[in-house]
Amino acid sequence: MTKPRQSLSSLFLKQVPAAEREHIRRLEEIQKAHDGRPFHFDDGNLRIMYLNPKCMQSAMKLDAPDELVCAYSRTVMGLLMFQSKPRHILLIGLGGGSLVKYCYRHLPDCRITVLEINADVIAMRELFMLPPDRERLQVIHCDAVTHLRDNTYDADVLLLDAYDENGLVADLNTAEFYAICHANLVENGIMVANVWGKPSALAGMLSRLRQQFARQVSWTRSPDSYNLIVYAIKGALNQADEHSIKTLSDEHPALQFHELQSRMLSLPLSADYADPEDELAALKLSLSTIMVPDANVPQNYADWKKQIDQ
């Protein structure tokens, strides 16, 4: 299989056109001025956070800061099909705060706790128009693994949206960490992970989550990138019926729940893999059907911006 582009975070070809080289050169100058730290870049109505010139973290429209610009973030919000009225969302990874802002605006009865390891990312929260900490929102500067060992939450939803330029963060992709996440969810809670990387690494992640969450794990690829969005259910699987999907679609018209439903994959709950290698093989086969080269995925910044502006 041809190796796919890895992520919305890796929009750049190895052999890039002249305009793309100039764009990267500008980003490199900005990064140099920021001593290699995360930085932002404004392009017309867009404000974009970069971890480095080849790793876009998030994007925001200046005139609509609560809008979910990137399709992967809209796919993450498929969590509402399983938890339509969450009371507490625990989010690991702040970035530009796209998910925080959407949930803060559209889920007014929900409390949001964010764990972010990078102080430089937190320092940009006003640039990305995040509301200040108050009763409904708290951003904590910490290492999520250590923090969750020492603190217990009663989250209805746990969003894992933390990665680096190489994809999965090793400390956030272990059986021990997934057990900690499981323990911080209420019964019938949901963990949603936005990840990217090699299919072999992603298959291992799915296998660990299936073991921790009694095999109640589904996944799909984002329509505009090679981000994999994974949904893991604790307790009884309680997915929205057709009537509930219609109600959710009316409340959140940008999220396209029916289309998301049609793209979601899983292994049969009845499947019994006595040999872990058999399960890994089945997961890799499932991933091979979606982690494939896709003409709809932009290959450079100009193509991505054109898609966003449509």
SSE layout and pairing:
Elements: H1 18-33, E1 39-43, E2 46-52, E3 55-61, H2 71-76, E4 88-92, H3 98-106, E5 111-116, H4 119-122, E6 137-141, H5 144-150, E7 155-160, H6 175-183, E8 185-195, H7 199-212, E9 217-221, E10 228-233, H8 242-251, H9 257-263, H10 276-288, H11 301-309
Parallel strand pairs: 4-5, 4-7, 5-6, 7-8
Antiparallel strand pairs: 1-2, 2-3, 8-10, 9-10
Helix pairs in contact: 7-10
Sum up the structure in keywords.
310 residues, alpha/beta, Rossmann fold, seven-stranded mixed sheet, three-stranded antiparallel sheet, 11 helices, 10 strands, 20% strand, disordered N terminus
* Quaternary status: single chain
Low-confidence stretches: 1-9
In the sheet with the most strands, the strands line up as 6-5-4-7-8-10-9
| Total helical elements | 11
Output the CATH homologous superfamily. Vaccinia Virus protein VP39
Rg, Å, rounded: 19 Å
Percent strand equals: 15-25%
What's the β-strand tally? 10
| CATH fold description | Rossmann fold
How far is it from the N-terminal to the C-terminal residue, by CA?
A: 31 Å
The class by helix and strand makeup works out as alpha/beta
Task: Please outline the major beta sheet.
Answer: 7 strands, mixed
